[in-house]
């Protein structure tokens, strides 16, 4: 069996946290993905990445929450639940600690999502087409 450096195992756990932050993941789940005990995983993760596994996962969730607050009109509660957090109070506290503003105030600093809605080019072309058809096939089909 070949030796695999622990950092590779830790990357598996980090990738899991990045990909499935919206699920109820815990340190135990991340440690299992890395194939390490909880205590050893936590020590190694902090040593390699400079932050605890819990703090890393919370940061990913808060970053995604900030993006949802900027780009959607979902309520703060919906955003909280969408990023895998269960408590509005702890979400608001953590968000304010990280971004310096409450989620509601943070959202208010950006224009509403509806004002920035991007209309796909295919829809623009469809509505920009002439409404009166002049093809012979169309007039023949209408006559029958």
Structural summary, described in words:
- It is a single chain.
- This protein is mostly helical and 144 residues long.
- The protein has a single domain, classed as Arc Repressor Mutant, subunit A (Orthogonal Bundle), CATH 1.10.10.
- It is built from nine helices and no strands.
- Helix 2 crosses helix 3.
- The mean pLDDT is 84.
Identify the notable features of this structure and list them briefly.
mainly alpha; 144 residues
Could you give a short description of this structure?
The protein has 144 residues and is an all-alpha fold. The protein is built from nine helices and no strands.
CATH structural architecture = Orthogonal Bundle
CATH superfamily: Homeodomain-like
**Helix fraction?**
55-70%
Tell how many strands the DSSP assignment holds. 0
**Residue runs with pLDDT of under 50 for 5 or more positions:** none
**What is the number of helices?**
9
Q: Given the helix and strand composition, which structural class is it?
A: mainly alpha
Tell me the distance between the termini.
78 Å
Shape: elongated
The chain-level mean pLDDT equals 84
Which CATH C-level class is it? Mainly Alpha
What is the fold's blueprint, element by element?
Layout: H1 6-19, H2 27-34, H3 38-49, H4 53-71, H5 76-82, H6 88-99, H7 103-108, H8 121-128, H9 136-143
């Amino acid at each position: 069996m070949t030796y695999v450096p622990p950092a590779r195992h830790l990357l598996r756990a980090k990738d899991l946290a990045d990909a499935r932050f919206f699920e109820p993941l815990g340190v135990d789940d991340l440690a299992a993905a890395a194939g390490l005990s909880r205590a050893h995983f936590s020590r190694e993760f902090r040593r390699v990445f400079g932050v605890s596994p819990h703090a890393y996962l919370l940061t990913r969730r808060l970053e995604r929450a900030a993006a949802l607050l900027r780009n959607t009109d979902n309520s703060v509660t919906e955003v909280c639940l969408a990023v895998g957090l269960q408590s509005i109070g702890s979400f608001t506290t953590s968000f304010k600690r990280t971004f310096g503003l409450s989620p509601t105030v943070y959202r208010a600093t950006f224009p509403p999502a509806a004002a920035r809605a991007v209309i796909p080019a295919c829809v623009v072309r469809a509505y920009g087409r002439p409404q009166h058809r002049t093809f012979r096939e169309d007039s023949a089909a209408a006559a029958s």
